[in-house]
Amino acid sequence: MADTRYNLLDDALLSVRRTDATRLQYTLPQVLAALADDAIESFDALQIHQRQPWHSFLVQIAAMAMARHGLTEPPTDSEQWNSLLLELADGEPSAWCLVVEDVSKPAFLQPPVPEGTLKKAKYKLDIESPDDLDILITAKNHDIKRFRLVHPTVEHWLYALLTLQTMEGFLGRGNYGIARMNGGFGNRPLLGMTPGIGWGARFVRDVAVLAKARPKLTDDRYDENGVALAWTLPWDGSKKDALPLQDCDPYFIELCRRLRFLETAHGLECWRSNTNDYRVAGVKELNGLTGDPWTPVVRDKKEAKSLTVSENGFDYQMLNKILFSGDYEKPATFNVEGIDGGVFLVATTLVRGQGKTDGFHHRIVPMPPKINRLWSKPSAREKLGQRAEERVQIAATMRKQILYPSLCALLQAGGSAQIDYADVATWMNAYEAEVDDVFFDALWESVDLEPEVAQFNWEETIYTIGRARLEAAIESCPLPSIRRWRAISNAEGRFEGAARKFLSTLFQPKDITKEESHEQLAGA
Amino acid sequence: MSNSQGPEALEISETPDGEKTLRSVLGAIAAAFERNAQGQRGGLSNGDMAELRRISPDKPYTPALWRILLDFVPDGWVAGPDRDQKERQWATLLMAMAICAGQHDPYKRLGSALAEAGWSELRFVRLLRARDARLEAEVRRLSQYLSSKGTPANFGDLAQLLFHQDGELAENRRRQIARSYYRALHSLESK
Which has the closest alpha carbon to B174: A410, A134, A62, A492? Predict the structure, then answer.
């Protein structure tokens, strides 16, 4: 066997589908060149939850490599990328190889082993497939089948390795997580505005954003010429070996586990060893505040910390807070300066639960050109934020004051039985999902309307959605036939009564007419 | 009658283009029945009224029924492949109206009339659940009850109950009736 194998710089290991529908095998430099050319449609072996770490990785290495040479545009020449990447690894080609037999040298995302041998460093061979390596915890065969990759290719291993090293959190003693996450049980959300959602468009846009944000980060707490690829340095896993953040490049690619790949006659083997601390020093005190260009920062009274998304994912309430509330510091990728047309808000994260995965959440919210224009004006953005908040409140009023009591009345069927939230959760969740579906589109549409017309329209939408959920409940919930009509009448009575009480504009309309183009907010 | 406009006012409820509506037709029939009750000219004979009151699932058709259908009900309303069924439904409705002659009030929802008359919830639910022959029997009971209490009601609601027995429309009509019944029941209970 050769000393090194599977070199990302020279071997075409990555299967891509190009925008011209051809399928090719690319090296990493070819991938970067094709992305700069917006020529990549998709990566064949990449699983959906691995897209985020792959995108971040590509953007980060590109931004670092370009910054070191003062390049402002990503090159479209793969040879140039090849030398840039090699330089990023301090000229050590083994840093880009998946298998490097000499453990004193770095391998791709695998730090050198200072102990000299895997045996001395107590590496174990207990990872059988990329599924075991990846961060998805799939205890049951519900959402995603376990052990899917029966015949994994090198590509599968590469993506799984990258996902683990750049996205994983704390997983018990000896298994520490990344620094770009608030707490060991947090997650690393990616949010950003982009003019296009293809791989190339997002790549070019984010590389530019990172370049722009770089000087501030290097002034504050990073080293402009610091460690770019954390795996090029030896790591014995001890506390004293932790890497100080100020020695790193602001966009350094971190890693969290000690791993080494070997190749035998049976194929690839993945060895791993426990560590006594995080790779980066002072992770606990950082609260995830690493200046990650994609992660919003939450500022509450006590402290600041990077956003951790809950299992609810990016619902409209959460996105609304991030977009408009003053409690969130927006990430660098939210700056839309220089983008003329519409933008897409892309939000992705994999929520980690304790001993399980709480879902992969991915959402794209299109923002039409007029909204993009408003977004860059602080006063207009504030007004838009106020309107959004009012709309969240109206939706909440329907949920709490109108729909929930009506559903309870329905299920009680005139009796006095206590109704738990779980009993009505199906319809409440369906209501939330429907509101979520229309929230942003309706908000964008409303910006040209007078406040009262906008409120009337939104109350009407909310009323219709709520009423439809109540109807669905009437049709589907089991009711004792003798009390069916009483239950329905009670529920409808409660719904209509409360709707009239709380949806003030809809049921006490003043003289409202739809205004076509007031540019109410645009004029702000 | 609680309606201060009097029976004559019901006869003019036609659409602007002169088309008859269920409301106008029932108004006209009710007016004819009431004239009989008050012994006025132009009303139905006592014999006709008795015939109508005797309508039963076994004997739905009487000469009085045909006369009323011919005089008051547009032919298109009962025409079609399910003519038999429609005629039976009209027969049941007219039986109820005849029993309650003088009590038709388009402004008094059937549901609230039943609640105010003390019609039990059990019977009410049975009424809403009944279809076909069972519904005919329930309607007979209901009209006898309303008659004994002298409570006016909108027989248009009863017509809806008879004419729409399946599907979404039937569900909506029954829900409307239930809404008015329970609203009245609730206000009676909370007094």
Answer: A492
Nearest residue on chain B to A492, alpha-carbon basis:
B179
Could A493 and B182 be called an inter-chain contact, meaning their C-beta atoms sit closer than 8 Å? Answer: yes
Distance CA A444, CA A345 (A): 13
Each residue's pLDDT tens digit, A290-333: 999 999 999 877 789 999 999 889 999 999 999 998 889 999 99
CA distance A75 to A33: 6
Which residues span the domain enclosing B142? 22-190
Query: Would you state the structure tokens that stand for residue A274, as one six-digit string?
Result: 């426990």
What DSSP string describes A259-284?
A: EEEEEETTEEEEEEE--SS-SBTTHH
CA distance to A66, A283, B51, B65, B82, per residue, from B73 (Å): 87, 86, 18, 11, 16
Q: Where are the beta strands (DSSP E) in A14-75?
A: 14-18, 23-26, 40-43
Cβ contact, residue pair A493, B124, below 8 Å: no
Helix (H/G/I), strand (E/B), else coil: A428: helix
Give A184-210 as a DSSP string: TT----EEEEES--SHHHHHHHHHHHH
- Of A78-82, A459-463, B67-71, minimum mean pLDDT range: B67-71
| Phi–psi pair at A14, nearest 5 degrees | -105, 120
Q: Which residue matches tokens 């000393």?
A: A3
CB-based contact A169:A352 (threshold 8 Å): yes
Contacts of A468 (CB under 8 A, 6+ apart): A434
Q: What is the pLDDT of residue B14?
A: 47
Q: How far is CA A222 from CA A182, A244, A249, A332, in A?
A: 19, 9, 6, 16
Tell me the pLDDT tens digit for each residue of A399-455: 999 999 999 999 998 787 888 899 999 999 999 999 999 999 999 999 999 999 999
Total tally of structural domains belonging to chain B: 1
What is the rounded distance in angstroms from the CA atom of residue B1 to the CA atom of residue B108? 10
CA dihedral B70, B74, B79, B84 (to 10 degrees): -50
Where are chain A's structural domains? Answer: 4-285+295-371, 377-506
Q: Is the CB of residue A255 less than 8 Å from the CB of residue A229?
A: no
Between A and B, how many CB-CB pairs are < 8 A?
32
Cβ of B181 and A489 within 8 Å? Answer: yes
CB atoms within 10 A of CB A507: 14
Distance CA A467, CA B28 (A): 38
Which of B121, B129, B174 is the closest to A486 by Cβ?
A: B121
Q: Which CATH number does the domain housing residue B126 bear?
A: 1.10.520.40
Query: Which residue of chain B comes nearest to A481, CA vs CA?
Result: B125
Q: At what angle do helices A378-397 and A421-446 cross, to 10 degrees?
A: 150
Strand partners, A100: A4
Locate tokens 């490599």: which residue?
A65
Q: Between helices B155-163 and B132-149, what is the axis angle to 10°?
A: 170
ipTM of this predicted complex? Answer: 0.77
Residue with tokens 């586990």: A257
**Architecture of the domain spanning A377-506:** Orthogonal Bundle (1.10)
Tell how strand A248-253 and strand A227-229 pair up.
parallel
Nearby residues of A521 by Cβ (< 8 Å), 6 or more positions away: A374, A380, A383, A384, A387, A447, A448
